[in-house]
């Protein structure tokens, strides 16, 4: 756990046993809230972290997830049971999947295969009465005049929301600004990489969501992968540059009729200098590739371009976790 100030604590969910890839955030105070649960397998880690912060089973008021991908919301059912007074807040188009995860789980199993059990574990159902669906905007009361405002920010996923703290200006970006890979050296900025998995990725929606983030004038970005970033303007600009570049590269790959393996090779080569933090350390590279692979991001963009450009280019399926 890391104290980020203003009663905000970062919880490392230790996804797949890795440190520093998937975060949850606790906001303490009058009505304690948890943002992101991590996977179902991470639920005991998150529960213990909350306990260490003084948040007992009866105390947690809200569990909110930025979207229902299993690295963010897989633990909702477990944590709802562990914290019986918590209301679960989620975007309207994700709500029914938390109440009845059957379809979500069977499609995840189809995509992830054996990773399902090793990395995620089962998303357990949550009673409908405990789930509150938010639409375009919503509000979560943290007590004492402090609240989290939810903003629908599709593009990475159709059921994605960003959350801004009205007191601190902290913006919880989920995966809508991609991934941030922090550097150990405080003077070196982290890498920003796009997160464009199938089946929802949509460039105009993703760019609109980044624009919405700018208009909220946040003071700090809190990435689910991974951690807080103070340099808001440059980081959001970089997120936009990255996603535009990747879409252009995949468009080139389609024009050249590259198959997935050759597309990966091409995108890797053309972006080689862009992720110095990630590529400097083999372990960092491996764990982030496992979370959000080149293959999965390319397949997601290709699927979007099949619709946007009006012609189908076949590329094999590929999955990664985040
Ligand atoms: Zn994710």
From TrEMBL:
<feature type="domain" description="Metallo-beta-lactamase">
    <location>
        <begin position="21"/>
        <end position="225"/>
    </location>
</feature>
<dbReference type="InterPro" id="IPR036866">
    <property type="entry name" value="RibonucZ/Hydroxyglut_hydro"/>
</dbReference>
<dbReference type="InterPro" id="IPR037482">
    <property type="entry name" value="ST1585_MBL-fold"/>
</dbReference>
<dbReference type="InterPro" id="IPR001279">
    <property type="entry name" value="Metallo-B-lactamas"/>
</dbReference>
<protein>
    <submittedName>
        <fullName>Beta-lactamase domain protein</fullName>
    </submittedName>
</protein>
<dbReference type="Pfam" id="PF00753">
    <property type="entry name" value="Lactamase_B"/>
</dbReference>
<dbReference type="InterPro" id="IPR050855">
    <property type="entry name" value="NDM-1-like"/>
</dbReference>
């Amino acid at each position: 756990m890391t104290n980020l100030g203003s009663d905000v604590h970062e919880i490392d969910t230790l996804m797949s046993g890795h440190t520093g890839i998937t975060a949850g955030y606790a906001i303490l105070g009058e009505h304690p809230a948890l943002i992101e649960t991590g996977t179902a397998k991470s639920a005991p880690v998150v529960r213990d972290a909350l306990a260490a912060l003084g948040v007992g089973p009866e105390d947690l008021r809200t569990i909110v997830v930025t979207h229902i991908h299993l690295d963010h919301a897989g633990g909702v059912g477990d944590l709802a049971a562990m914290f019986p007074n918590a209301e679960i807040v989620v975007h309207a188009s994700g709500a029914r999947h938390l109440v009845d995860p059957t379809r979500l789980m069977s499609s995840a199993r189809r995509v992830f295969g054996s990773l399902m059990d090793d990395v995620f574990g089962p998303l357990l159902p949550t009673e409908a009465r405990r789930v509150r669906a938010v639409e375009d905007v919503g509000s979560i009361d943290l007590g004492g005049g402090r609240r989290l405002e939810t903003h629908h920010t599709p593009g990475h996923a159709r059921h994605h929301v960003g959350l801004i703290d009205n007191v601190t200006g902290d913006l919880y970006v989920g995966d809508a600004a991609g991934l941030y890979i922090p550097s150990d050296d405080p003077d070196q900025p982290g890498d920003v990489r796009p997160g464009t998995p199938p089946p929802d990725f949509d460039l105009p929606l993703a760019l609109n969501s980044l624009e919405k983030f700018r208009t909220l004038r946040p003071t700090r970005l809190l990435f689910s992968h991974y951690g807080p970033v103070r340099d808001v303007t440059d980081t959001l600009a970089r997120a936009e540059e990255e996603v535009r570049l990747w879409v252009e590269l995949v468009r080139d790959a389609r024009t050249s009729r590259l198959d997935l393996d050759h597309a990966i090779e091409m995108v890797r080569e053309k972006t080689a200098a862009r992720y110095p933090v990630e590529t400097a350390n083999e372990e960092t590279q491996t764990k982030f590739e496992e979370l959000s692979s080149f293959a999965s991001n390319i397949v997601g963009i290709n699927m979007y371009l099949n619709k946007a450009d009006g012609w189908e280019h076949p590329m094999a399926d590929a999955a990664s976790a985040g």
